[in-house]
């Protein structure tokens, strides 16, 4: 294993990123004080991918590797991660950690209709054959309680995006009477972890989803929102419908001002335009998924998780 030198290793642990995540991979490597390489990625006209990683120097074999890539728009990325892992194994890497701030295919954790797969189990087994350890941020687990249940037998850490959100609110100024609102029960841990350290009140709504873009959020009618600032927090913002409905419900209860924070921003420019139409500023997000709304870095949080997994 690499020689321990305090909070860093002596060159035998390396971070590998991909072109779409190169900046975030470099920031993580900087936080860990280790080298970073970015894979060369080529896509052939038929859609196949070619992944090329640098060969390690003969006198500095890589013993542990961190592969960094968020799995938004995951299908090509899953194949490319598998190819990258195969190269690193062939190069002699004994311990592979996948850092996927956004982990895909977690929501389908049960068979809801006949003929459907349990995608969470399929992808968990797939990646578990390629990697030894996992770090994710707000992995959108529902009935599954921990990542260890997804990547069976593989040490895994599921990080909360609450600390970066709370830190940003503290740094930019948040009124003492602000109410932190989450759209549904699944957002309750995030709401509590944001509101608690700031001494704020947290409220959770009830969401009825009839389709990907057909969502209604109801807030408790007695919620103490009237005349007070409201901060809406959620783990993922994609179609925006959950946030729009939650904001309307808060306004109906008399919210003074509204701010929106998301851990992962997956929406495009069309949805961004709708935030303005709904009278909302563009949400602020963490930088696990590259997006124009990124303002909250995750590299320190992820670096601490990697250190805990490898105990250095």
From TrEMBL:
CDD domains: PRTases_typeI (cd06223). One of its GO terms (biological process) is purine nucleotide biosynthetic process. Keywords: Nucleotide biosynthesis. The keyword Amino-acid biosynthesis does not apply. GO terms for molecular function: magnesium ion binding; ribose phosphate diphosphokinase activity. Residues 178-251 form the Phosphoribosyltransferase domain. Pfam families: Pribosyltran, Pribosyltran_N. InterPro entries: Pribosyltran_N (IPR029099), PRTase-like (IPR029057), PRTase_dom (IPR000836), Rib-P_diPkinase (IPR005946). Residues 21-127 form the Ribose-phosphate pyrophosphokinase N-terminal domain. One of its GO terms (cellular component) is ribose phosphate diphosphokinase complex. Gene3D superfamilies: 3.40.50.2020. Belongs to the ribose-phosphate pyrophosphokinase family. PANTHER family: RIBOSE-PHOSPHATE DIPHOSPHOKINASE FAMILY MEMBER, RIBOSE-PHOSPHATE PYROPHOSPHOKINASE 1, CHLOROPLASTIC. This is Ribose-phosphate pyrophosphokinase. It comes from Azospirillum thiophilum.
């Amino acid at each position: 294993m690499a020689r321990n030198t305090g909070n860093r290793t002596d060159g035998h642990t390396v971070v590998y990123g991909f072109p779409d995540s190169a900046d975030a991979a470099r920031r993580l490597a900087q936080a860990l004080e280790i080298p970073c390489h970015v894979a060369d990625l080529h896509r052939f006209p038929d859609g196949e991918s070619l992944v090329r990683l640098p060969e390690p120097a003969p006198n500095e074999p890589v013993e542990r590797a961190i592969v960094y890539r968020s799995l938004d728009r995951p299908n090509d990325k899953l194949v490319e991660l598998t190819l990258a892992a195969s190269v690193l194994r062939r190069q002699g890497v004994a311990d592979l950690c996948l850092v996927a701030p956004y982990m895909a295919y977690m929501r389908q954790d049960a068979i809801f209709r006949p003929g459907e797969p349990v995608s969470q189990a399929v992808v968990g087994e797939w990646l578990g054959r390629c990697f030894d350890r996992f770090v994710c941020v707000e992995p959108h687990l529902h009935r599954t309680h921990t990542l260890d249940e997804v990547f069976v037998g593989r040490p895994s850490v599921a990080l909360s995006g609450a600390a970066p959100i709370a830190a940003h609110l503290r740094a930019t100024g948040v009124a003492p009477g602000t109410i932190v609102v989450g759209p549904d029960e699944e957002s309750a841990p995030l709401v509590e972890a944001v509101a608690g350290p700031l001494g704020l009140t947290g409220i959770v709504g009830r969401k009825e989803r009839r389709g990907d873009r057909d969502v209604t959020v109801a807030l408790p009618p007695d919620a103490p929102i009237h005349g007070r600032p409201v901060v809406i927090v959620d783990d993922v913002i994609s179609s925006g419908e959950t946030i729009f409905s939650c904001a309307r419900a808060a306004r109906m209860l008399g919210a003074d001002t509204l701010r929106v924070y998301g851990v992962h921003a997956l929406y495009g420019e069309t949805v961004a335009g709708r935030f303005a139409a709904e009278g909302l500023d563009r949400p602020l997000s963490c930088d696990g998924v590259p997006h124009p709304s990124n303002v909250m870095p995750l590299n320190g949080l992820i670096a601490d998780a990697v250190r805990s997994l490898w105990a250095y």
